[in-house]
Amino acid sequence: MKQLVILGAGTAGTMMLNKLHDRLDPDEWALTIVDRDEHHFYQPGFLFIPFGIYEPEEVVRPKREFFPDGITALFDEVERVVPERNEVHLASDTVLPYDVLIVATGTAPCPEETPGLLGPLWYEDIFDFYTFEGAVQLAEKLETWEGGRLVINLAESVFKCPVAPLEFAFLADAFFEERGIRDRVDIHYVTPLSGAFTKPKATAFLSGLLDEKRITVVPDFYLESVDNERKVLVSYDGQEVPFDLLVSVPVNMGAEWVETSGMGDDDDLRFIPTDKHTLLARDYANIFVLGDATNLPTSKAGSVAHFEAEVLTENVLHYVAGEALTARFDGHANCFIETGHGKATLIDFNYDTEPLPGDFPLPVLGPMRLLKETHLNHLGKLAFKWVYWHVLLTGKEMPVSTALSMAGKKVDPKPIAEPA
Question: How far apart, in whole angstroms, are the C-alpha atoms of residue 276 and residue 279?
Fold first, then answer.
């Protein structure tokens, strides 16, 4: 019996487990999935918890609920992978041999990487919302916070769900306005990027929203440390930004075992070098990588993991059949962006095409609108929670093209130059 092992039972790993379970011959292949946590979190829901839109229990379910019958699930810590022996070593001293390995161990916030971030103000006046605990603690803080300078800071430019900090800023604006204290809250968006986003059209649109909502952008700010006594962010070039309440997006890094196994990239963030089209690990013939664990030049977002899973399923089937890896991932990503007051916008792009205005997924009919605020986009964002639990994780087909479609998009005949 041949062994296919999946490391990580989050969004990407669970999708791959279900898709391959339905496509691989059970008499020939045994499937094993490994994760250290038995609880599955709907991570897009973390954004809504601080503002009381979701209750914490709405975003947590047992992982086993989404595993098909006939597979082996191990809840254990991965210590290292030994590619030259095709082995995965677990903390329990279990050694798993594999014929094919799929890595989906994602990325996680690492606030300990920034001096002072995990200081005495952590979960007092400094919070994250990218973890379940952080989102819940921040919700408690916002219930009684009476105003001051709210700073939303991106410690790095590479992190999961890159639009979520913008959504947090927009939702905070609406939240404080609805509480009647918006005039007592000074919101600052502090980022290492040169603007609100990484693509010109989206940056222009989102910057306009930030201006409209009186949210100050502090660009090109590379966080070096947090001074807890003075309540100040300090950049590498000596800039300082004071805060009363800091909402941090800490440095994001891949799993520790990636470094232990010598499989990471050159920037010490523990992401695995991966072919951006086939999703084969660059240095290994039988290891595939998807989701946030890769070093691909696209967003670390759930939609990317979904589109990658469609491609990777085909390439794994090609691989086990001894065929060329012909399925190609084009970097497709799409993201709803909550803008507050029951509205949202939507972006859709890939490696080569920036977010463009237009209709999605159908020309004229939409019903979603790209780079435009609508109530229907907001409803689409909320409806996705049901889709996530019942369709996406279970490996069912989604009614969205895996590759980027230009249908409905309005293309400017004059190309926009990328910023220098």
Answer: 6
- Position 124 in a domain: yes
Q: Which of 301, 320, 339 is the last residue of a domain?
A: 320
The whole domain housing 89 covers 2-108+253-320
pTM of the model: 0.95
Dihedral sign from CA coordinates of 66, 68, 69, 75:
negative
418 band by pLDDT with thresholds 50, 70 and 90: very low
CATH of the domain at 191: 3.50.50.60
255: closest CA among 158, 127, 110? 110
Beta-strand pair 78-82/87-90? antiparallel
Q: Which of 305, 320, 335 is the last residue of a domain?
A: 320
Contact assessment for residue 281 and residue 98, using Cβ atoms and an 8 Å cutoff:
no
Q: What is the pLDDT of residues 112-133, one digit of tens each?
A: 999 999 999 999 999 999 999 9
- What is the H or E stretch that residue 242 is in? strand 240-242
For 265, how many CA atoms within 13 A lie in the half-sphere containing its CB?
Answer: 16
Relative to beta strand 87-90, strand 95-97 is antiparallel
- Largest Cα span, the chain: 66
